[in-house]
Amino acid sequence: MSQATFHAPRRKRKVYESYESPFPVPLSHDGYMKDFRICRGEIINNTVIVRSVEDIALLYGKGYFGKGILSRSRPEYNIEQEELRVRWKGSKVKFPIISSIKYQHHLQWAKELLEEQNMDPETVIKILGDYTSPILLPDEREKTLEDNVDELPPSESANRSSTSDKDCMVREGNPAYDPLSKYVSENPDTDHTLLDREVLEKMHCHRHDDFIIHCGCKPEKQTGHTDPEERGHEYVMVEEEATAEAEDMEEERSEMKKLKLVCRRNPFRIFEYLQLSHEEAFFLVYALGCLSITYKKESLTILKLWELFSAAQPNFQTRYMAYHHFRSKGWVPKVGLKYGTDLLLYRKGPPFYHASYSVIVELVDENCEGPPLRRLTWRSLSGLNRTTMNVSKELLICYLIKPPGFTENDMNTPESIKRFSVQEVIVSRWISSRERMEHDEL
After folding, report:
1. Which positions are annotated as active-site residues?
2. So what's the pLDDT on residue 194?
3. Dihedral, 28, 29, 33, 39 alpha carbons, nearest 10
């Protein structure tokens, strides 16, 4: 049997980040309890997503788990348009700058969302009109007050002058800045600090893998998705056209178009989430223990996750075994769907190296026999190998070898992973002329 030759990974020419850690857990025992963090994920439409900005930065920054739902890979989507920020670099606005066309798209999406709730068209127009009306920034408000201060009584003029010196911030709920404050209920949300017994019986403790009512731990404070980063896109600066008549009488009488920035409320906010594959999510839960996944606000155990993912994805069990194997060896596996394979293997991560191997996973018995998971003919295998070589990768077949006496019922638990052994085979194209030259040299 010929021995495969290992080729060094092909490094990318431009690398814009530094390598932090292979896993989102502390590597030293001293700082383990201090720096250890359990991230939160949830299952929505058969997909595991992470909402918290801190959890997203931890999972992707250390180990490159998942991808952004609005980005190509790294979750870095921003509503702001970079070319507009460069154009208005002299302005000192802190809100994102977008074009009028993009703002109209968000306005149309918000309108369609309200219409789906069976609202009257006039009510929808009235609400959106109040919501998106121009908002005066603190500097503009002070300038307006200074222009009108002579027309006010002396007492009110003095009060306005003293308030104009203060640094006012645009806040939601303030009638001076928020046109929707009249639609908000005056009754504040009640603080649900006391939990009844029925809620405690359904609340799961991730530290002891049991229910809180049994282990005696205190329930964590439940907070909504009110991260400052998420609320940062509440207000946007819209680049709009302001028309002004030409002052020079000799010039042609026309209207000159000038651009200005208008502060408005964003009617339809889009948030960047981290999307995890089933293999990545289960590895973070089962192997590292740094992720907790919920479904319909109910925390899921490891065994329940194994059952859900196996039912949702027919090849999840075998693919996860291969994922677990390569992750443990230091590779960063990603989904290989775009190249027709199960996995892609990266060294350190996609920002540093191109993928080195395209992996096909097969399940065999101790004699390396069994029904194939992927039915490959010689023609399809040759075409897959040629496609892999054209993108400077190698085709690797990962054989998962079952122990003697292993049945399908044994696959119902993730503990069966420990009983498997793995054999890797690299598929290479045999070229007769090259083989003859190497043989002659020997």
Report:
1. 346, 354, 393
2. 39
3. 50
